[in-house]
Amino acid sequence: MAEDFININLDEVDDGTDPLPEGPCPIFVKAAEWKHKAGSAYPYLNIEMKPRPGAVEEKLKNKSLFLTLSMNPKALWNMKLFFKATKMPSDLRGMKPDEIARMIQGREAVVSVGLRPSQRDPEKQDNEVKPPYHAVR
Prior knowledge:
Blueprint lengths: L22 E13 L8 E8 L13 E6 L5 H10 L11 H8 L3 E10 L7 E10 L3
């Protein structure tokens, strides 16, 4: 009977804990989903982004970045800036939330990536996405 062996070196596996470096990062929107927390007056759009191919070193190419865009009137400036950078329409009246989420998927921009202490492990850092955002030329 032949013996099967496991042939894996986990030292070479990216565990997803290394953050992207601070600074501008070309991205594409992988997914977008509207959510509404119980008790909250305003829904929000959760956006998952990935670095554009070739924008980061190979080991970080599958890293996800996240951005939450609130419908709170005091936070709409952030949605406007992000939508402008991704070349989304600014007049969304009469559109269904799912339509907007589908429209933004695949769009590209350059976002500012920062670092903040991780909530899970104070010894590590997580990425945060913040303005300014820029359109891809």
